[in-house]
Known about the structure:
By secondary structure, the protein is α+β, with helices and mostly antiparallel strands. It has two domains: 4-92, CATH 2.40.50.140; 113-414, Bira Bifunctional Protein, Domain 2 (BirA Bifunctional Protein, domain 2). The chain has 13 helices and 16 strands. Strand 4 and strand 5 (81-92) form a beta hairpin. Helix 4 crosses helix 7 (250-256). It is elongated. The chain starts with 10 loop residues before the first strand and ends in a 20-residue tail after the last helix. 4-amino-1,4-dioxobutan-2-aminium adenosine-5'-monophosphate binds at residues 158-159, 179, 181, 202, 204, 211-212, 215, 217, 219, 349-353, 393-395, 397, 399-400, 411.
Amino acid sequence: MIDAPKYVNEKVKIGVWLTNKRSSGKIAFLQLRDGTAYFQGVVVKNNVSAETFELAKEVKQETSMWITGIVHEDSRSHFGYEIEVETIEVVSESHDYPITPKEHGIDFLMDHRHLWLRSSRPHAVMRIRNEVIKATYDFFIDEGFIKIDAPILTGSAPEGTTDLFHTTYFDRDAYLSQSGQLYEEAGAEAFGKVFSFGPTFRAEKSKTRRHLIEFWMIEPEMAFMHQEESLDIQERYIAYLVQRVLDNCSMELKTLGRDVETLKKYTIVPYPRISYDEAIELLKKNGFKLDWGVDFGSPEETFLADQFDQPVFVLNYPKAIKPFYMKPHPTRDDVVICADLLAPEGYGEIIGGSERAVDYDYLYEQIVKAGLDPKEYSWYLDLRKYGSVPHSGFGLGLERALTWITGEDHVREAIPFPRLLNRIYP
Length: 426
Ligand code: 4AD
Ligand code: MG
């Protein structure tokens, strides 16, 4: 039905499910969905057979049907089109569908996620997710990037060892990937500009509205590129994603009640940039009790982002709180060349990125200091032996970005089947 505009005043046959209905003596209104859209079917007693009208009155929620009828414009409805039903053929009945039109608690809905996906709100979020995925491929491929897939089963940890998912790989240890970055760095030296887009896993014991155990990350990596140029790509990429959603998902945004004027502000680049040092000063001036060197939590990130109308880059964090691979600052030994992009409206960090350390000896030393085994990283260190170049990259968490773009209040809404601290079902 998403292509209803093509069929106005024409007769169509479509497969649908019933989401709700009401009827009087002479007319039945069926709320229908066909997987692409939610719309109304009108069954007028005098225009259909007695059996069809009876069926329209009796049919239960989520029964699947073939219907035929004429498509009409309907300016009063959200979708803008309805169907004047002529025939109904039941494909399969449904009884006692658990998700009724009344309100349900979040745990109940999450337990029924396999069914809840049929409802208009998750449906709208997943369609926007699909647009963001497609826009991501379009953006990077148009910019001359090549997609290089990183492995999911790995023997080394890019983001630290505390939140690794352990598994076995025949007779040795292995981990589920936390990030494809190290492999993308190899890719960048082979192909120039590369990106990966795959699932990543973090055994983080965090139960917040920003943390998933399994999430999807987009990780571009660019050879012969310094951090400033990478920031330029990052902001153009985010602005492009928002613009694509504005262009192609207006109905979904309306379903979600997402304010379009707010989103439009995010399509304007450049985004503001402040240093970590400035961020600390700003926080202190506003009553936050913290010292230089700490990492920001959700309240700090929310406050910082609230100072701007657009996403904001926070540059050059303390070396001690960032991973081993980041490039050291040329004149200070306490910070690294990196940036987190904080989304407005309380959504926090959506991108983490940096310029990468290129010097073999420095990197070797950092690996040892991080308590990692240089033997496991010898392939990665090779990249600094054979024509090492300045290179930069970043990682965007798909679900974090999507939660922000859709205006949802929890990252679990942004993935079809969320893996959370206490949930691996359904
Ligand atoms: O900041 P992070 O840990 O950076 C990296 O993994 C780098 N290796 C990326 C790179 O430079 N190639 O994670 C990147 C992003 C975060 O900004 C956030 O959007 C998302 O991944 N993310 C999570 N999303 C959902 N749930 C979690 N538990 C997440 N942890 C990180
Ligand atoms: Mg980060």
